[in-house]
Amino acid sequence: MSKVVLKAINISKQYRLGQVGTGTISHDLNRWWHKARGKEDPYIQVGDTNDRSSKGSSEYVWSLKDINFEIKQGEILGIIGKNGAGKSTLLKILSQVTTATTGKVKIRGRIAALLEVGTGFHPELTGRENIFLNGAILGMTKPEITKKFDEIVDFSGVERYIDTPVKRYSSGMMVRLGFAVAAHLEPEILVIDEVLAVGDAEFQKKCLGKMKDVAGEGRTVLFVSHNIQAISNLCNTGLLLNKGQIELKGNVEDCIKKYMLMSRPENLKTIGLEDRLKRGSGSVIFEELKAVKNGNESWEFNYDEDINFKFKVTASADTKGLGFYLALRDPFSEEIISNFKMIITENMIAKGDSISFTASLPKKTLRPGQYGLYFTLSNSEFKIFHDVLDNNVNIPMLNINPVSMDVHENIGFVTMPFNLKIDP
Amino acid sequence: MTSKKIEDDNESWDLVLEPSTNWYSLGLSQILRFKDLLFLFVRRDFVSIYKQTILGPIWFFIQPVITALTYVVIFGLLADIPTDGVAPLLFYMCGITLWNYFSDTLSKTADTFTSNASIFGKVYFPRMIVPLSVVLSNLVKFAIQFALFIAVWIYYLITDNSVHPTKALLLVPVLILLMGFLGLGFGIIITSMTTKYRDLKFLVTFGVQLLMYASPIVFPLSLVSEKYPQYKLLLLANPITSIVEAFKYAFLGVGEFNWLYLGYSFVFTLMLFFIGLVVFNKVEKSFMDTV
């Protein structure tokens, strides 16, 4: 068994919200006074969990709370979580940019952090001078940099500009140079924030390749990214954070699955169809509506499950003919599919009459993701609208969960049949 | 969901990150490990200042000369402040050269945290490297201005017999070191105290200016002892006074040289630097949260 190279024991980090001003000094004085008498920090007990969207009662929040984990040598740990889950705070603590409020981290070997590329680049200095400066900031010694200098320049691909001040560089060149220096760091533990989301496609590929090499050399890497693809490619273990706490630590695929499940809307409330906007004539309205999975209401389906919507519509006036239309939208409310159009009846519907029907979408058609829904009731010519419902107003989004890790089954919007035949 | 607790152990680790560690350590071993960075910072400061200028480092000369000439006109000719019988230009240059080292060091180290927040927020290296690099790069600048002063001094030494260098010249390196550490000590205390509350920052800009008039730069200490003897002690409470006086005594043979006063300045500098170190170490760990 390989040895543990990093151990986080009970780390928590508290932040104070709001502005620093005269208000904070009373807290500081109070804290100092408690400390002077040998008492505990009076504000350490308070604090809400870090939920960005809900209004908290305390001025203090715990960005991280009781984080415990171990990393073994050679482990490539992917840290994932939603915005505000505490990923960056954790990285900041591990890279010594700030300290935890409580708890400690123990480390074996040299640790280097890469939270940004090209840290400390001075615009007036040349590429050559900045390689040395940046390398030294990241913890390399001058002989180390000199030894690797040619490799770094070669990797960056900006050889021609190496004696030009970096303020004349394009932003892409700056990033290339920055990453090239960082890629040639040789610490035992490397902490990397989402720095790969820069540069052109060719360079990104190069960076990912380089990171794989680093991992192959038996060094330990901690990698934070929103890029699930990169995480699953690179990492062998995962750490899923949620609201400042560890949700799961273990196999990277398990973490990604759980993370994807977490991205669903937090509560699927029963739909309040009562107080909706009146966006049609109102002579026939949706009275009941639910998405059904195995007989129960659910707005979440697996990729390989049939999707059913059950409707009950009621006429509030005598009406002739009824048409139903369903559209699926992408997250920007642009229609993806709009061919679900059906005439329910051409006959008269009397006031007070109800009709129930089910609309079905075949399985393995919609790709994993979130879809907005749009339902309308109209006359049989689809000219006069009686009722309109959509995800912007009062119905939940439709969620499709992936069932495999196969990229070619998880990206895009729809699956279409297709044929290929070899020409004679 | 809470993760399972991991027990603390007594094994040996290379690095332990904790909210609090010894508050007095300078972290010399860390600084030594990053010594290349220290020199690269010095180089950067020096090289970048005069990039895209035509005169380049000549500006280092122009600045003290013009200042000294201005003082000659204003304090020497107009205000008629005596200079202990030394040629005014030499007298002022002597004071200005040493004073500039102190004030440049102080005002530049005083915003260590705020002006380097973008680097400090992204990567760790011993924070002390930055103020130390300021002391060194200002020392380079001082050396250039000092060379200019020496040239002027030699000229007066040959042509004017009012200049009498003394044995105290041997002390000059110590005096320079004291000035540097005084500036550093004040600077790191101020920067540590301004990460959260910026109030002190306003004091620095004009405080340094005022401090110059509370030091015998444009007037000799003898003038005060002569006209206002009751304020002499007050002036001597300023640790810079005895250093500047000793500096002038060494080169020009005028001014008061007193081991007791100098000893006071020495102890003051040491204490100040030590206090600065303690405050700086305390702040550097988590200043990113409040800066």
Helix content of chain A: 10-25%
Specify the biggest β-sheet of chain B: none
Biggest chain contact: A-B, 58 and 43 residues
Write out the strand line-up for the largest beta sheet of chain A, numbering strands in chain order.
Answer: 6-7-8-4-9-10
Rg of chain B (C-alpha, Å): 22 Å
Q: Sheet bearing the most strands of chain A, described?
A: 6 strands, mixed
Name the overall outline of chain B.
elongated
Give unreliable regions of chain B as ranges. none
Outline type of chain A: globular
Summarize it.
With 424 residues, chain A is α/β, with parallel strands linked by helices. In chain A, 24% of the residues lie in helices and 34% in strands. In chain A, strands 6-7-8-4-9-10 form a six-stranded mixed sheet, with helices on both faces. In chain A, strands 13, 15, 16, 18, 19 and 20 form a six-stranded mixed sheet that branches.
What's the arrangement of secondary structure elements?
The complex is a heterodimer of chains A (424) and B (291).
Chain A: E1 4-16, H1 22-36, E2 48-49, E3 60-72, E4 76-81, H2 87-94, E5 102-107, E6 111-114, H3 127-137, H4 142-156, H5 171-183, E7 189-192, H6 201-216, E8 220-224, H7 228-234, E9 237-242, E10 245-251, H8 252-262, E11 284-293, E12 296-297, E13 300-302, E14 307-315, E15 319-329, E16 335-349, E17 354-361, E18 369-378, E19 385-390, E20 398-401, H9 407-410
Parallel strand pairs in A: 2-3, 4-8, 4-9, 6-7, 7-8, 13-20
Antiparallel strand pairs in A: 1-3, 1-5, 9-10, 11-12, 11-14, 14-17, 15-16, 15-18, 18-19, 18-20
Helix pairs in contact in A: 3-4, 3-5, 4-5
Chain B: E1 15-17, H1 28-33, H2 35-49, H3 58-78, H4 88-109, H5 112-115, H6 117-120, H7 129-159, H8 172-193, H9 199-213, H10 221-227, H11 232-237, H12 239-252, H13 259-284
Helix pairs in contact in B: 2-7, 3-4, 4-7, 4-8, 4-9, 4-12, 7-8, 8-12, 8-13, 12-13
Your description of this structure?
- The complex is a heterodimer of chains A (424) and B (291).
- Chain A has 424 residues and is of the alpha/beta class.
- Chain A is 24% helix and 34% strand.
- Chain A has a six-stranded mixed sheet, with helices on both faces. In chain A, strands 13, 15, 16, 18, 19 and 20 form a six-stranded mixed sheet that branches.
- Chain A is globular.
- Mean pLDDT of chain A is 82; it is low at 265-271.
- Helix content of chain B is 66%, strand content 1%.
- Chain B starts with 14 loop residues before the first strand and ends in a 7-residue tail after the last helix.
- Chain B has one domain (29-289).
- The interface between A and B is large, with 58 and 43 residues.
- Strand 5 (102-107) of chain A pairs antiparallel with strand 1 (15-17) of chain B.
